[in-house]
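Handout, section 4.2: multi-component inputs.
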Amino acid sequence: MATTKTLPQRIVHDWLPVTVVLLVVVLAWYGAAWALNAPGAIERVLDEEAGYTQRELFEATMTMERPLMPAPHQVAMDFYESLTEWPVDSPRNLIYHVIVTGQSTLLGFVLGTALGLLLSVLIVHSRTLDKALLPWIVASQTVPVLAIAPIVLVVLGSLGFSGTAPKAFIAMYLCFFPVTVAMVQGLRSPQKIETEMMHTYAASRWQSLWLLRLPAALPFLFPALRVGVAAGLVGAMVAELPTGAQAGLGARLLTGSYYGQTTQIWSALVMSALLGLALTGMVAVVERLVLRSRGGV
Amino acid sequence: MNHSEALNGQLAPPSAGTPARKAVEVRNASVVYQTADTPVHALSDICLDFHEGEFVSLIGPSGCGKTTLMRVIADLEHISAGEVLVNGVSPHDARLARAYGYVFQAPALFPWRNVLANVTLPLQIQGKGKADAKRIAMEHLERVGLKGFEGKYPWQLSGGMQQRVSIARALSFEPKILMMDEPFGALDEITRDRLNEQLQQLWQRERRTVVFVTHSIAEAVYLSTKIVVMSPRPGRIVKVIDSPLPDARHLGLRDTPEFMALAHEVREALADGHH
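Output:
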């Protein structure tokens, strides 16, 4: 039931809880930055013999050049400067890396979803394939992606694929699994009475799939897609690490750690979190539109 | 909405006098389930004939095989021995020829389809064009008194309305036989009475062969032209009663001596089956 709320009520209702949590996180972050940076600040910034006040110590921990833990405002500044002071096609601009990583994530997501759908349909329709494929599919996910990524990159690279394709492959490798598992469950969710009804209409297997199994499986698919797109992002970023890639959020994290640019690492981290939110948000919007078009179920 | 007029059919009743053809023939049919210890005889040596235009009720206690018998006729279950013919062909061929519409105990409407789309489902499977399917479905929805509800989703309807949608769906492709497996079992008595009355009127208008499974004596007597009384362990037929009641019926009939005598006969037969 949708009740109409006034704007202030809506703000309190929808935004207050998440704002409180954000506030707590930021405060904890400041606390952690102060505690973690204090030893370094005492050693490198402050003059221990001359003595210093607690206030001076606090200020020092918040403004260090290469802090162990950059304070939120330092990350925010770095983030903002990266977006505003460099053109979008510069590797100094985070948007550039978002586009690179987002591309391979989306491509891998689409391929992984397609693969997951295909596998689930095959598994549901064939007992043999169910027995033959499912153990391998589960086993595939026990192999650490960090181990498989370099192999894939080398093999695909020798075949002439570089750039987006190998990264999309790794993203697909992580994406297809939740989709397969959820869709196998979803395609099997129709009750006996519903499948028997299709039987009395002399519906073909294809018609049963299209008119009963797939629509019944949709509510299972979307949560899997949300998990899948987030997993795909992790896959794409991991795939950017071993190449020492010049582009992508993963590469940005790596170069940040090479040069001890902690603030840069943190802003790349924040950016990847935002990208993840945007991608899952995108799936949620599609889910809403699809479910609304069929009466909210 | 006028419920008593809701199930008005458009088909003319068949001309009287011509000998009715057999819609269903069951010859020495048995269904045996193999269980861990002993085989279970769900149906044992059943012989039955249903003629076209008959309203046949299968009645009996749980486990008497009434639903199994109907499922055999509908090709949802296979016989272990004997022979079953539907419209002169095997149940499998009859099913592929879309000879019957089946109404299950639950409405089994697809929650992602609105009422109209649920009713057009069988038509869509049979490859009917969209416009045709819609026109036919609207006609059938009107017959079950659900005109104006075509845009609603199943969860917006009461249980009785949902079951009426499922009846419209079963009839949408004009099957020769309508099979109903305790279709009103989950509904309250008031709704059930009303739907029985509507079903009676529907049958009156169309004279379609109906096979109806129930465990309510009143329902069986009120609706049927033929009552098949069954008994469990093993599932068998105790008695087949041809109803002496007039074809045109109304709920008031249930208080007449003829109705009560017939109900008594059914009750006696059910009791006999237990000895």
